[in-house]
Amino acid sequence: MSGLVLKLAPKERVLINGAVIENGERRVRLSIKSPNAFILRLKDAIHPNEVTTPVRRVCYALQLVLSGDVKEDDMKMQILRGIEQLSQVLRDDDSRSALETATKQMLERNFYQALKSLRTLLPREERLLAARR
Question: pTM value?
Answer without folding.
Answer: 0.86
